[in-house]
Each structure stands twice: as C-alpha cells, then as structure tokens.
Write a structure and sequence with these properties.
- The chain is of the alpha/beta class and about 950 residues long.
- Helix content is about 45%, strand content about 15%.
- The protein contains 38 helices and 24 strands.
- A 7-stranded parallel β-sheet has the order 13-14-12-15-16-11-17, with helices on both faces. Strands 20-21-19-22-23-18-24 form a 7-stranded parallel β-sheet, sandwiched between helices.
- A hairpin with a 5-residue loop joins strand 2 and strand 3.
- About 40% of the residues are buried.
Amino acid sequence: MSKQSEKILEEQLVDQLQKLGYKYAFIADEKALLANLKTQLEKHNHIQFSDSEFEKVLNILNKGSVFEKAKVLREKKHHIIRDNGDNLYFEFLNVEHWCQNEYQVTNQITQEGKYENRYDVTLLVNGLPLVQIELKRRGLEMKEAFNQINRYQKHSFGAGKGLFHFVQLFVISNGVNTKYFSNFGSHKQEFLQTFHWTDEQNNPLNNILNGFTDSFLEPCHISKMICKYIVLNETDKRLMVLRPYQYYAVESIIKKVKENEILNGYNIEKNGYIWHTTGSGKTLTSFKASQILSKIPAIKKVVFVVDRKDLDYQTNQEYDKFSKGSVSSATNTDDLIRKLNDPNVLIIVTTIQKLNNAISGRNLSKMKSIQHERMVFIFDECHRSQFGDTHKNIVNYFTNIQLFGFTGTPILAENADGEKTTASLFGKCLHKYVITDAIRDENVLKFSVEYIQTFKQKEHIIDLKVEQINETEVFEAPERKEAIVDYIIQYHDQKTQNRKFCTMMCVQDIDSVIQYYEIFKRKKQEGQHDLKIATIFSFAQNEEEMEDAVYSQLGMVAEPQAVYGYKPHRRELLETYVQDFNELFGEKQNVKDTEGFYNYYNAVAKKSKQNETDILLVANMFLTGFDSKYLNTLYVDKNLKYHGLIQAFSRTNRILDKNKTQGNIVCFRNLKDKTDEAIALFSNKEAIDEIIVEPYEAYVEKFNEGTQKLLEIVPQVVSVDGLYSEEDQLQFILAFRAMMRLHKKMSHYTEFTWSDLQMEEQLFADYTSKYLDLKERLDPTDPSKKASILNDIDFELELIRRDTINVTYILQLLIKFNSKHSAKDKESIEKDIFNLLNTEVSLRSKRELIEKFIQESLPHIEDTDTIPEEFEKFWNVEQEKALQELVKTENLSEEKTERLIENYLFTEREPLRKEILDLRKEGRPSVLKSKEIGDRILNKIIGFVDTFVNGISGN
C-alpha cells in the first residue's frame, strides 16, 4: 500500500491537535528544539534572552533526574543574572493559571543518543516537550508502543541537553486503543500502570481520534493534568498521575467548595461523598483533594479524619510519601488542638476520637478561636466513622465547615440496619466508581469464592441459615476448628502458588483467634507444617482506638472491644504470641503499653506487606484500610454481610502482576446468600457473574458434562466431516463453543490441569481445528453459496485466541527451526507451527501465506537473524498482490480503496455501503444488486485487513 497506516494515523492526529489550538512547529532535531524553546520561553515570559543568558537557562534545565526536573518545571520563579548584572525572574510553566501557556505540536523529532531514535508526536508547552505520544498501526499490541518508550528512556531521552526528561505524560495508541501514564524515569515501569481515559460516567474513550484527543489532549485539560493531577511521590522519587475516576472525584469536591466559599451556616446540601470501590486508590484521591483545597485562600484548614489510630498512622505515612511534611498528624488531643489553632498548619490527619475530645468538656475554651473558621473535613471510610453522637457534635460545634466523605461501601437504605445512611450524613454522592467499573478497567481483581462444608447436616435440616447455626455450638466445636486448620495446611501452597503470595484468616472473635493460633502452633511443633503465622488483637487498655463499636457484631469491621469485655488472660496470651513473632523474625516487639502495641501492629503490617508472613490471623483488625499486594487469599470463618463482607474480601483484590489472577476467598461458612446480596447492593443485581468466578470444581463438572454431550454428536474428530446438514453442524458448533467458554474460564485457575478433564489436550486442539474449518466454510464473499443459518451464529473466536500467539511468535519458531540440525527437532517444531496455524484464530487467515513462506522462501535463507526481515519483504509483496487482485476482480479505484482501508483501520467504523459502492469504476449497480455487491466487497476488504494487518505484531 502507498502509505504506512501508522503514518496516516499520525497525520490525522496532528491535524486534529491543530484544530484544538496547538500550533504546528517543524522541529527536526535537538538544535531546532533548543531554538524553539528559546523563542517560546521569551514569548511566555515577555522577555528576550541573549545567547549567554539562554545558556544559563539551559544550565537550570540540564540538572537532575526526571523527578528533580519535574520539580524544576513547577517552581514558581527561576532566577539568573543578566549580562548587564540585573536580576531576571522567569517561569517554565504557569502552574497557577494552567491554560495560560504556549502550546505546540510537532512530530518525528530525531534524537541522537546511544542509538538514533525518532519520536512520533510531541506536545510542547512553552517549548518544553511535556507529552510524548507513540503510535502503532492497528493490529499491533499496545505493549509494543509501551516497550518502545522504555527503550527511548534508556537510549535517547537523556541525550544532549536532556529535554525529553521533562516529559510528564506518555500516551500510547494503536488508533482504537489508547492509554496514558506518567514518566517514571529510571524506575521500572509496569504495563499495569497504564490507564484508559473515560468520561465522568466511567465510559472508556479508547479511540485516539474519536473521543480521547478532544477530551484528554485538549490544551487546557492536558495542562490541568500536568499542573494539578500529577503527584510527585517524594519517597519513591517518581511521578504518579491520577486515573480518570480520581480526577473526576477531586474536581467534584473542588467545585462544591468553590461554589460555597461563603457558607452562612452549616448546610448538608453543600457537602457530598465519593463512592469509589475498595482498592481503587482512595488515599491518593483524598490526598490530592486535601492538597488542592488547602491552597484555596478562603480555606484555613483541611482536616482528614480516620476512625482508628492505625489508620491515622497509615494515612500519615501515605501522605508523607506523596509530599514530605505536607500533613501534620496529631499525636494526642492536646496536640490536635495546638495544630488546629496554628495558622501555618494547613492539613491535619487525626482520629475521630481525638476530634470528638477536642470539642468536648474542658477543651471547648481552647477551641473557641477556630469555631467559626472556614474549614473542610474529609472523612475516610465514611460508612463507619460518623454513626453515633460524634458526627452531630462536629456539625453542632463548627459553624463554617463542609464535610466530604470517601467510601467503597456506603451505607444505603438496604444495609443501614437502623442507622443513618451515608447520604443522610454527607448529602449527595458526587462521584461513583463501583466494583464492576474497577474490574473492567483492571484496577482490581475478581474474586474466586469457595465454600467449604465443615460439618454434615442432618437430613431434616433443609435450609438452616448461618445465623441460626451460629446460635448452636457447632461452629465453636474444637473438632471443626482442627479440620479447618488441616484443610488450610493441605491447600495453602496451592492457593498461594507455592507461597509467592500470602494470606489472611478472619475469624468470629478474639477467643476464636486464640483457639486457632494455639492449634496452628501445636501442629507446627508436631512438624505438620512450617507456616509463619502472625496475629494481633486488642485488649482493654486500647480503649481510645477501639471504642467505635457502632455495629452489631455481624459484619462489623472495627475492633468491637465493648462487646467482649476485659479478660486479663488475653493480654498475657498476646504477649506470648508477640514473643513467637520476635523469635520468628528476629524482632524486639512488646505490647507493654499503647505505643508498644502500635509498634507491634505496624511490624505485623509490614511483614504481611512484604510477603514475609504466610497467614495473618485476625478477628477484625486489618479487614479495612489495609493494602498488601502480595495478599491473594482470605480464609473466612466469620459471619460477614454487606459492607463488612466487601471490605474483608477486598483485602485480596489488589493488582500485582500477571501471576495474581484473582482474589481467593475460602469460606468455612455458607456466606453465598450474603455475598450475592452484598454484590447486588454495591454494584447491581446483574453484576454477580462479573465479580465472582465460580469454584474451579464447578467448571470441571460442567466441562465434563459438555464433553459427554459433544461425543454424543461427534464421537470422533473425523465425525465432524460427516455432518452434512446445517442443523447437525449447528449442534456441533453450539456444543463445542460451550466447551471453549468453560476452558477459557478454567485456564485462569492455578489448580487447572487437563488430567481433571475427560478430554485430552490434543483431542481438544483437534476439535478446535474442525470448529475453525466449519467457520471458514461459511464464505460470505462467495455469491454462489446460498444464505446459511450458520451465518448468524457468533463463533466467539476470541475464546481460542491467545494474545501472545501472533506472527511474531511463528517467526520465533521458524528461527528456532532453522537453527536446529537434527531431523527429530525440526519435525517437532514443524508440528508445533502447523498445529498453531490450524488452531489459532488470529493465524487462520494467514495460514496459506505462512505455509508458502515456509515452503518457498525459508529453505533459501541461510542467516536465521534475517528471517523477520525476509518475511516482511515477502509479506509486503503478497499484500500488494492481494490488493491488486481485489481492485481488479471488483473493478475498483486503487487510490480510493487504499484511502478507505486506511480510514477503516483508525476510525474503528465499518465503511457504509454507499462508500463501498463509490469505489467501483463503473459506478453504482442497480438498487436490486446494491446489497449483494456491497456486502461482497465489504467482506473482501475486511478479509484483506484480517489477513495482512491484524495480528502482524513486531515483524
């Protein structure tokens, strides 16, 4: 074809960006980039630099890492001494008024580093390259553009004056899929840390030309993202950009505050809450909201309120990571009062208990001066904190405040249980991002829930509910707990992929924690396991942290100390368990006082976060607000419901890497109904299948049933060839498609093995081949074939498509094939190649051409390193031949056909019949023949794209 599709996409993108207000700048290399930078900085700052003065500017720009340069970029004023001795102040970026900057677009800048690289599209702000866009043609994997940027980081971004180290955001796209991510510099960048942009209702804007550019790359918006919504993580020294739902949440809070700068008394209508599912990054969102609000002159204080001391510590640590010293954590009530009265402290993190103490009794006189100050309170996990008198005390005392809440599991009418709903305390929900959104965006994992029967029910007990059973002694029977521990010992390695991950076990109450710990300890001494178990629970002295026992015990997820009362032996037992912990990890922890208890708490948390414990055994602690990416399994012997259940399950759903495919929930109580109710409440009633995968055994059973049905239709692979009627073929297609669906689901389980199935892997591959043969027989481009009932069947070919199997993969096998000398090795690889060509969906349309290359070209290639290059030459020749054949047989305009195919690739829209018929040299056919001829040509064009563009990856 006359132009590379990538080139067309680039031209269309540059054109669209110019329409948005970017001025095009022709910049070939770094010399031109520096000349343009001088001009743009002069224009932006309304000054002129002499050459020697500009060298001083470049000296400021040329220092430090990507992280240091990001800080330099954002500094309000820079200073140099002019040639005449005067002081000169200037800025690189107007952060305060982010739309008031100079915007340019350029493409194909060449940068000479370790290697020469040419970058696709660069967005310049005041002459500095702040956004880099890398494009790939449709059909190529997004990861290729991502890997290319990683190569540029190593090879050329830092070359010369290092101006490309100022890039803040990267955008990667193949036209129909587009993602963005921040510049991590020398830090390892994971593809998981790339994000899709969406609209405010969480609908993805994936097409770069149709949605993404107008929304995300619009000059004012991209400036706002850079100036306000990138967090400079001081601990890791890297940039963190907010995801779209985080952006919309913060924007909604800021809008609410700016609309109500003068409050005239407390009004719930001026408040609001953010419903973002557990695990979606609420800490970063709340930090960004606090940081931006604290810079609004009218706002004197932003107070971030948590409901437990451990969350106070954790939030302060997290905030400190984002920006060292940006927040102040109150150590006690007196310290909180001091900080509230200090005008220099803008953001405070505190517990609700300290805040309540500060506005009670003897402290009221110390608080008088700030009672009427304009403040914003942000409540973490607001589904828990505000019940009881504390919320009422706060709004009754302060006269000039707004309240905003963050929760993953709000209290709605259905789960209020007599308490107030989140909306009745905080007003309307300002932004919603529920668990189904997060799973779709791959920001959290699905749950795999298993229910393990721990006792046999008598026949007359037909439907005994969990709550009723719990009233009996059966759940507390020592024999049952022994059996559960035995089960965990037996299956722990399987669940954690041989301890690549760790687990948590939550049990009914503190006494149960003690009983389970003792069983695990005894069995370890007996040599039955070598699991590292850690535990922690509260005792009477920790009243301040544990006083918020506002729920019934059922489903509660904060330590319910008041329910248990004081038992002296608990503290002694905990001290013994702390000693076990010290011996296990070489620590010196103790729980002799409150400070010691929280030091131990943090030590336990750290070990779990670093995957050093195997099981963290708890009653209620750690079931909310605790994030460990290595935690992949939760053992549950506890009654949970609604928000308590989702919060606990969500400890396992943090994304880590491709090995962590799901959060495993192993329930030793029948929580099926409670789980379904919780999911229906916090997403929607249709969402259960989207959130929870069935137990592995259920899929095995269904697959084996499907095998029996299939074998009744086609007892052997060759039987498929004997299916002459379309009705018989349809039966086979539907039966085998059901099996493909099940196989796809089962393959995600760590315990998946073909030995569980009543069909061998090779036999499944053979049936797959026949299935695809049937699909190919339905050739819609052949006018001689009558309409088939099978044309309406969705073959769901994506079920047998493996992302990693593409032409690149085949080329690697061919290189391997050519490098082998023994006939046996060659035969084995050849068999693999032809098996893939027969069974892999993305390769079927290319099979004949690849076979032709293997038979005609491969024997003449001596240097295996040139195979990809030779294949590309061969492919381009065949592509040109196929295009000529298409335009000749249908008598089409070659130029118009090329243009239509290029537009089809990047607008993600099938051409209209009118556009197809306009390609014909002899003009449009009669009305009666328009549909038949139009559909035939369209199917040929789609077939051409499928063969020559889709799945041609990295060649």
